[in-house]
Design brief:
This protein is α+β, with helices and mostly antiparallel strands and 115 residues long. 24% of the residues lie in helices and 22% in strands. A 5-stranded antiparallel beta sheet has the order 1-2-3-5-4. The structure holds guanosine-5'-monophosphate and zinc ion. Zinc ion (ZN) binds next to helix 1.
Length: 115
């Protein structure tokens, strides 16, 4: 279920290198190319789903559990003060890469992330 013309399929499956912070059989999390804050990461399934509307329940459950696990790790390791989970679906909502992904954005007191 990999799409030849999808950049996140290639990153998730290791065909394009990325700054990976987590990997298992079904998901990869890696640093965003254009980070809103220090440690901004993207969590993506290895299978291709365009967005939340297409995501199956198993991946949806796993994504939120991983967001909790990785967010907790970020708090410990980066010392962030907060965390934004952001997930855009469809062009109208600001989605630019059409492979489901969840933004994990560590927040620091007085950071100036324009989110
Ligand atoms: P969206 O607007 O679709 O929710 O977010 C797409 C995100 O993917 C953006 O934050 C953008 O910086 C990031 N991004 C786009 N292409 C690449 C890439 O090739 N590598 C990485 N690491 N991040 C990317
Ligand atoms: Zn894809």
């Amino acid at each position: 279920m990999r799409h030849d013309d999808c950049i996140f399929c290639k990153i998730a499956n290791g065909e394009i290198p990325s700054a990976t912070i987590y990997e298992d059989d079904d998901f990869r999390a890696f640093l965003d190319l254009n980070p809103a804050t220090r440690g901004h990461a993207l969590l993506v399934p290895k299978d291709h789903f365009a967005n939340l509307f297409e995501l199956d329940e198993e991946h949806a459950q796993k994504a939120i559990l991983l967001a909790k696990k990785l967010g907790t790790r970020m708090k410990k390791e980066l010392g962030c003060d907060g965390l934004n989970l952001i997930q855009n679906n469809g062009e109208a909502a600001g989605q630019t890469v059409f492979h489901f992904h969840m933004h994990l954005i560590p927040r620091y007191r007085d950071d100036e992330a324009g989110i």
